[in-house]
Fold:
Amino acid sequence: MPVALRTYCFILVALLAAGPLAAAEKVAKPGPVTDPTEASLEPLLAGEFALQSGRLDEAAKSYLDAARAADDVALAERATRIALLAKDDKRAAEALALWRQQGGEGLNLAAAEAVLAIRRGDERAARKYLKQLLQAPGDSGWRQALGVLSGGARDPKQSARLLERLVKDGSIPNKLPAWLAFGGLAQGLEQPELVERIVAEVVERFPGEARVGLLRASQLREAGKDDEARKLLASLSEQAGDDRDLRRALADEYHRLGDYPAAEAVLAKGPQDDQTYALRAALLAQSEDKQSLTRLYEELRTSASKPDPQRRLLLGQMAEFLDRFDEALDWYGGVPGGEQRWTARLRSANVLHELNRDAEAYKLLRELQADAAADDESRRDAYLLEAALREKDKDQPGELDAYARGLAAFPDDPEVLYARALGWERHDDVARAEADLRKILVAEPDNVAALNALGYTLADRTTRYQEALQLIERARTAEPDNPAIIDSYGWVLYRLGRNEEALVELRRALTLQKDAEIAAHLAEVLWVTGRKDEARKYFDQSRKLDPDNRSLKRALEKTGA
Structure:
């Protein structure tokens, strides 16, 4: 928090501490108010209350009034940010002018100018401010420009037009990470021709750089040219050598192609550590290649004679992947100590449950819950795991009992309350889910996960859309670029009948994160607005990401797609 804002907060607290009589006396003093701090106090307090209530339009007005009264550059910047978030362009322009007048300068100001210009449709002015950001030394400027293009535009086509012009003008800094980032943005905006242009530019600027090939392979995959993408990745794999980061990036691209054996083979080259071994084991398990996983397992067993907690924990997990549960128990039981010991005990309970030795599994979890030597996080996780296993057994009373005991041991623990709230929602008990999420917010009013979960639940499962919007706005204020929160925001706009606004937000969320639920939401809104061919594309994307997604199933049932 800037120094000026800290000062106002201290004054605000002091006024409240003085009590209502002292406050009344202060207000009752005759004559004009000359102290800018005192004059700004009332609108600042009103703005904070509005912000904490998710009423961004009121917060924007009050913060602008406070900034005018205080003549403070930090408050003017804050007022500008809130007005932009509230999509109150008129007040944003006024706050921005005040910010400049009070001496504001630098990258933050240029970024705000760019966003407002984009909102107005003044793309020439937007390019001017974006170029200021792109020409700034270091990496902060181009990263801010990337954020403006990914989040400030009204729709993907507008972002694409601006980015295409910046590329054409040679405005992107001659830095490989910047070009790769803007190439990734073009790909997320589903602009294959622009991606092609950026790839060509990057190849010319950075010849022989393997990461350029990664961008090209990603472009081919997005275009459905999987065979060409694999061919390119194979050539890049030969160049990777001992570059661990590049090998992991290649493996990730193979993973996106669904080619798990190839991803594992890339990771198998070069130096190995426990993290690499764990990734390889997970990939082999996903591909159900038990023969290769067994070879890797046997390879690691030979070096496990020394009591290395991390290696034994890994071998236990690999034995789980192989369904060699008795061996997994032996490895977990042999973890000698350290923080891995508690993880090993939790995994042991899970293995016992897989072996249908439920009584032993729950006994082990009860012992861990009562073990004073264990850290609080592990003890709490023992309650959460017990609840998850009871839910897997379709034992709702046992699940609820585990949560109840967890909350008795860790009163109002946000993790336990959050997990129980999700459980209530799964069982269609929205009232109890809401109660648990509100308990979290009583203790932690700014808990973003709880704000978003409650807002989304109310939007999705009730008709209390305005209340849902206010909760989501509070979460959005804290994390404006979080794709899960942007998805919730788009969804509640759809529920409010603001379909075109909803599409803007849902497209942006999917650009930031390829997720089955977001894709299903976007598809449903497209379907109900009559764009059925485009909707089918996103339904297909959602199916590929997670065919069992609950939102996808509900959307398909509702639309009949």
